[in-house]
Design goal:
The complex is a heterodimer of chains A (333) and B (476). Chain A is mainly alpha-helical and 333 residues long. Chain A contains 13 helices and four strands. In chain A, 76% of the residues lie in helices and 3% in strands. The longest helix of chain A has 32 residues. The N and C termini of chain A lie far apart (54 Å). Chain B is built from 16 helices and six strands. The longest helix of chain B is centred in the first third of the chain and has 40 residues. The radius of gyration of chain B is 24 Å and the shape is globular. The termini of chain B are far apart. Classes of the chains: A mainly alpha (333), B mainly alpha (476).
């Protein structure tokens, strides 16, 4: 009766959804993280304009990811969310403040600085919380009978603080390379200037995480230091991307730094997946353990196969419409 | 004092959902109103329709923006506070909620931009089509949400094995026994909300003598619609009640304040339910009327709360009083609709001061009716989360402590209070500036799409809107 390995298909879909979200909301969160450090208020206008047309489309991937996770891997959903209870709250609160800041900042005059803080603070908190989630996933969860039994702040360890900072730096890098691509003049100059220090920061934090991770978990150590040597290609590719960012910033390329940063994220992400595969709730449950009923996975898959291509085309079209440089005091035409 | 994570989670979910619910219930109705205005504009080419549509689209943008922001929280609440329920019901609820995202959200996202910013950029027919698609999207969204909620009230098409629900029939689960009534009741409630808000705001403008011709037209449309849907809602509500009697008799017993199964059950106009002593105090009642309404026979037997143990009874007073407030407001709505018809002779409806004042205050009524109605249906289900199959106590997250639940409850209240104050304040600004807002052409922000609020050009602070101030403009 079970013709396909549906849980496997769903693992790819959710995995794809997560990296789509990270890359897309990553750069607009990054713009928010960099917001307070921008050279002047005019630059902040331009920065916000550069992501305004696309940010809520980007966040739809998060809602879809939440609902899709519940549908396909309810065990992951119902263990991660209670375990990360406080973190989830901070993430949502951050996203709310940031979301309304987009709406109100351009309407506000005397109260504009408040919305600046809402945007920057919300983005920073949300990004840090996402990084902590990644760290908590690597750490694993204390469960019994498929239910989380740990405490409220078990996720908050030096390791997750570090992964939180890692994502913060990574998103900021995505943000700065996005700004190199989308802006010009003084703002672009500033973005060029901060990109290499940010890259250095990212490499240091990612480096510490890479060295630390095998010590957090035996399984991860085994995976990397056993016979599966082909996976070492991933860190090599990550470093190549980092070098490419360095080189293209030096050569004043405009698009390449952003593309290479996305590559940096993708290969790091694949490395993370390889470390834990096929465990979705480490250290106990694999993706097959966590899957929902076959019929439920099939029912939703039929709809998704039809809709996802439309969504991708629509998304690509939106980015196409808003292509090109953003200038101060000017919207899109 | 011991903090109970169950009670705190219930308060938290009630708070978040109540807060969120008032936005969609308005936008669903308003989206259809805008689609009708667009249709009229397209057909008659009368600029008044376009002006009205343009104004209400701005209001729509602000309210929709608030709704989206407050809604993000909800898809995560199942997991944070009700993880046992999430895991048990995921086989059904997961796909249903996902279908809402992929069928409704993306439809709305795709066409909202065209509706808000495309008026002068796409052909009129396309703009009308976008308005219809946004309205359709809001209904598709409520279709899935009400299907999910109805399934929790009257579960069908699923079987419970080892604590997990498995779907045996998708059609039976989606179109479960109470779904049609709930969907219709909610749909009409949305239209009532949209109509009363538009009527109330138009009445206010008419009282101030602003844009009289356009606001008169808008008010007239609302009053015609209310004349039909306000009584229709009473009929649908009655059918919904009969359906509830069949599937959730204890909810109806709580609504009626009926403690003992009996015949000739009176209809209580007033009472103070006393759950401790399982009786009512200070009853004012009409004999046998509840029996007649519920069974259509004067001596019909109506089940009372004594059929189940005290622990399995819902909190009676909340259900009892919420129900009375909802029905009372419903009656008031019918009264206003009929009065509007009476005042139509000689066109007095838009000149009669006390009536317009009354309509102003009535614009808040549908929101209270929706919230109290929602309390009836949700609190009346207690102690069940999935009626007859899974209790609230079984559903709550096992690792959740009272302290955590309290922390996030306070957190959400603070976050929402800040966001809500800003949103309502801004909405008032948009209403204050009104239809005369002629700012569109000269603001560069008109060109920046994709954020709902970009559809308006009203500044956030008072005092910055002199050019738009009707006093300075001499009308429009």
């Amino acid at each position: 009766m079970e013709l396909f390995d549906l849980p496997l298909i769903w693992a790819f879909i959710i995995g794809f959804g997560i990296i789509m979200y990270v890359l897309m909301d990553g750069f607009d969160l990054g713009v928010g993280i960099l917001f307070p450090f921008a050279p002047n208020e005019e630059s902040r206008d331009t920065m916000m304009n550069s992501v305004a047309p696309v940010w809520d489309g980007n966040e739809t991937w998060l809602v879809l990811g939440g609902a899709g996770l519940l549908a396909a891997f309810p065990m992951v959903y119902s263990i991660f969310l209670p375990a990360l209870y406080i973190g989830v709250f901070l993430l949502l609160a951050g996203l709310i403040f940031r979301g309304v800041a987009f709406e109100f900042r351009f309407k506000a005059r005397t109260s504009r600085y408040l919305w600046n803080w809402a945007f920057a603070g919300g983005s920073t908190v949300a990004a840090f919380a996402q990084g902590a989630v990644v760290g908590a996933y690597i750490q694993g969860f204390e469960t019994a009978d498929g239910v989380y039994v740990g405490g409220a702040l078990d996720w908050l360890t030096p390791f997750t603080v570090l992964t939180g900072l890692g994502i913060l730096a990574g998103y900021a890098l995505l943000g700065s390379t996005w700004l190199i691509m989308k802006t010009e003049g003084r703002l672009q100059e500033w973005a060029y200037r901060i990109t290499l220090p940010l890259l250095a920061g990212v490499l240091v934090v990612f480096g510490i995480i890479s060295v630390w991770t095998p010590f957090v978990d035996d399984m991860v150590r085994e995976r990397w230091f056993s016979n599966l040597s082909v996976i070492w290609i991933l860190p090599v590719l990550t470093l190549l991307c980092a070098f490419q960012i360095f080189r293209s910033v030096r050569n004043r390329f405009e698009g390449m730094p952003f593309v290479a940063t996305m590559g940096l994220f993708i290969f790091t992400y694949l490395g993370l997946i390889v470390s834990r595969w096929p465990y979705v709730v480490p250290p106990e449950y694999t993706l097959w353990d966590a899957a929902s009923a076959y019929e439920s996975q099939l029912f939703l898959l039929l709809g998704l196969l039809f809709v996802i291509p439309i969504v991708l085309v629509y998304t690509a079209w939106t980015y196409w419409v808003f292509r090109g440089k953003v200038r101060a005091g000017e919207g899109y035409h | 004092m011991e903090l109970d994570p169950l009670i705190l989670s219930r308060i938290q979910f009630a708070f978040v959902v109540s807060f969120h619910a008032i936005f969609p219930v308005f936008t669903i109705g308003l989206a259809s109103f805008i689609a009708v205005l667009e249709g009229l504009a397209f057909k008659t080419r009368n600029p008044i329709w376009e002006k009205l549509s343009a104004f209400w689209t701005k209001v729509f943008a602000v309210v929709f923006g608030m709704g989206v922001v407050s809604g993000i929280v909800m898809s995560f609440q199942f997991g944070t506070n009700w993880s046992n329920f999430a895991q048990a019901s995921a086989n059904y609820l997961g796909p249903i909620l996902s279908y809402e995202v992929i069928t409704a959200f993306f439809l709305e996202a795709a066409f909202l931009g065209v509706l808000l910013f495309g008026r002068d950029k796409v052909p009129a027919g396309v703009h009308l089509f976008a308005a219809i698609m946004v309205a359709t999207g809001t209904f598709i969204s409520s279709f899935w949400i009400l299907s999910a909620n109805s399934w929790m009230q009257t579960p069908a098409g699923t079987e419970l094995r080892d604590g997990v629900f498995y779907v045996t029939s998708w059609s039976e689960a989606i179109f479960n026994p109470s779904f049609p009534y709930r969907f219709l009741h909610m749909g009409l409630a949305s239209f009532l909300t949209g109509s009363f808000v538009v009527a109330g705001v138009s009445a206010w403008y008419l009282l101030k003598g602003r844009e009289v011709e356009a606001n008169r037209k808008a008010l007239s449309m609302c009053l015609w619609l209310l004349l039909f849907i306000a009584p229709a809602q009473a009929v649908v509500g009655d059918f919904h009640g009969l359906n509830t009697l069949e599937h959730q008799p204890m909810k109806v017993a709580a609504m009626e304040g009926n403690w003992e199964t009996s015949r000739h059950v009176p209809l209580l106009l007033f009472a103070i339910p006393d759950q401790e002593n399982q009786t009512n105090r200070f009853e004012i009642a009409i004999p046998s009327l509840a029996s007649f309404i519920l069974t259509h026979e004067w001596d019909g037997e109506v089940p009372g709360l004594n059929e189940v143990a005290v622990e399995e009874q819902p909190p009676v007073a909340i259900v009892f009083w919420s129900f009375r407030i909802m029905v009372g407001l419903g009656m008031l709505m019918i009264l206003f609709a009929v009065t509007g018809l009476v005042l139509r002779s000689g066109g007095r409806y838009w000149r009669t001061g006390w009536y317009l004042q009354g309509l102003r205050f009535m614009s808040i009524a549908p929101f209270i009716a929706v919230l109290t109605g929602w309390f009836v249906t949700e609190v009346g289900r207690a102690p069940w989360l999935v009626y007859g199959m899974m209790t609230q106590a079984e559903s709550v997250t096992p690792s959740l402590t009272g302290g955590m639940a309290l922390f996030t409850l306070i957190g959400y209240i603070v976050v929402y209070a800040l966001v809500f104050s800003a949103g309502v304040y801004y909405l008032m600004r948009v209403l204050y500036v009104g239809l005369e807002d002629k700012h569109d052409e000269d603001e560069h922000e008109a060109e920046r799409p994709a954020r709902p609020f970009s559809a308006t050009h009203v500044p956030f602070e008072y005092g910055n809107d002199k050019p738009n101030n009707p006093a300075n403009q001499g009308g429009h």
